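Same chain as my last thread, 308 residues:
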Amino acid sequence: MVQLNSDLIAKSRTHFKKKRGLSLPDYLKTLTHLNFSHKNIEDIGDVSMCRNLTVLYLYDNQITNICNLGFASKLTHLHMQNNNIAHIDNLSNLQRLSKLYLSGNRITVVEGLEQLRELKELHLEDQKLAPGEKLLFDPRTLLSLAESLCVLDISNNNIDDISDLAVLREIQTFSAADNELHNMEELEDVFGFWPQLLQMDLRGNPASKKRKYRDRLIIACKSLEVLDERDISEVTRQFLINWKTSKEAKKKKHNTLMLPGPLSSDPFTNDFYTAQRPHPGHIYSHNMQRLKPQQSLSSTAIDPTDLS
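reply #2:
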C-alpha cells in the first residue's frame, strides 16, 4: 500500500533537490505546497511536520478516507478529486480552508463541513453513485456555509431538488448540469434568494428543455451574467423585464374588467338576472315558497312585476 508520509516526500526527486543543505524535518517545515497527485496513494499517513502547508494536491489517487490532516491549520486549498472517498470527515481543524475539491469520489451526503466558516468553493461534481442514488445535503452543513460559499458545483449527481440550497445566499457561481431538475417554479424560488448569482450552468436538466426556460431564469436572476455558457446582455434582460411587466399589467386589467358587479341578496335576482341556475329540484314563486314536486312553472303564474 502506498502511503503519503515523510519517507515518501523524502524519496521524491522533486523534493530531494529542494532539501539540499537542510535536514528533512527542517525542510518539511518550509513546505507550503505539496503535490502528490497520480501516485497511487491509498492512505494519508503522518505528515504533521509539514505544519506550514497551505496547498495540498492529492487528486487522482486511491484514497478512501480523509484523515491525518488535523495538523494543517494553515491549509487553504485541498485537492482530493478522483479518489474513492465515501464520507466527508476529519476536516474540522482546517478552519482556513477556502477551496475544497472532492469531485469524482463516492460521496452520497454533503456533511462534516460545519467548522469551515471560510470555505468559498466546493466542487462535488460526478460522484460515483449507485443506481437510484442521488447526492444529498446535510442542513447543518448548508447553514454553516450560508455566509461564505460563493462557488458550488454539483453537476451530474442525479439531483432533482435544490430547495434546501436556498440558504446559500452568497452563491456567485452555480453548476448543476446533467441532473434531474425539472420544476421551473422551484428553481425560480431558489434563485430569488441568491442576489449575488453571476454564472450558472443547468444544461442537461429536464428544465432546460422547457418553453421560456432561459427567459424565465434571466428575469428571476437579477444579477446573472452567464447562463449555460452564454452571455446575457443588459439589453436582453431589460427587454424581458419590460415584457413581463407589460404582460402582468394587461392580465391585471383584464381580470379587473371581468370582475362581476355586486350581487343582490334577493334569490330572484341571483337566479334570473345573473343567469345563475337555481338549486336542482327547486322552483321558486314570487312569495319564496318552494313548489311541490308535482307542480311546474306552467301551473304557477309569475307576474313580471314581481321581479322588478
